Predict the 3D structure of the following.
Amino acid sequence: MPDFLKDSPAYGNVSRAGDGCGVVVVQAQRTTRRPSPAMRPAQSDLVNILSSLEAHWHVLEAEVVEIGSDIEHCKLCSKKYGDWFDSPLQFLQELQRTKKEKM
């Protein structure tokens, strides 16, 4: 075994890959770090915030889809009944733009 590996902290995990070939394989140890007790509430808060944001995203997405459907219905009514539906159509288009900007 090479001398530089004898002083290595990974010395216990060193093995030879064959006799006489001079190849040394070092296996890295993987440690799992657990958060300190002080970090657990921060992680919990972060998970809650992310869950809340995801829920709001889904609500906004559903609203945009519904508004898109309403816009199509309003366009059909505008063609069928005339100018009475132009103002609601403009309102719905602006509302859809606003919701998409929030996303």
About this structure: DSSP finds three helices and two strands in the chain. The radius of gyration is 32 Å. Helices lie at 3-6, 40-81, 86-102. The CA atoms of residues 71 and 91 lie 9 Å apart.
